[in-house]
Amino acid sequence: MDLGLDGKVAMVACASSGLGLGVATALAAEGADVSICARDADRLAEAHGKLAATGGGRVRSQVVDVADTGAVRRWVDDTAAEFGGIDIAVGHTGGVVQGPVDDFGPDDYREAIDTALIPHVALVTAAAPHLGRGGWGRVLLITSEAVRQPMPHNVLSGVARQGVLSYARNLVHSFADSGVTVNVLAPGYHDTPALRGPSGEDAAAAAAEVPLRKVGDPDDFGALVAFLASRQAAFVTGALLLVDGGNTRGVV
Asked: What superkingdom does the record give (predicted)?
């Protein structure tokens, strides 16, 4: 299936490994020009090489801490200047401190919001003037299954990422006339560096909780994001898509 992404310009935050790299790889394989960022220069260079090896579109990488709003704006501006525009913005952030609600006070919640919500807002705000050229654009924000199911060990993530969902729902109407769709993905356990323990015990324990008895593959997650970025997904906007192997127990 031709997803219509050849020559589109995509930005993927926090893409030196894990889900971000899976997304960037899928978009590059579809022929998109991909701009990635991360904090670690060495890991970013390695990811750049992997993307270039796909033989897809052009690749650029930039060391950026997505918690730095000014750095995010510079990344957006530099990408638009080099690639001639922006069509797809994929927001992604690092994790937040885990623990139950009794462990945290106001400052902890404020830091979680700065870590897991504000970077999405910074990326979309900076990219907005570039999105919608030719009546087309995609905003895809990666959160966590915690937006649908309270997780007692991960309360800060749930609170901060709920803000991402509310922000996205409001963006749907703001972007509607420009042909830009906005969707949120809520991944559960995936085989990423954040999940793996020294001997893989963390991934094994996570898999035991999931009805499918396995954790997700970042490349499969990337393929799903690529479809949501495609021309075939033009009527999908305002959606929250769980990608968690059935781990979320809620009915609605």
From this structure: Bacteria
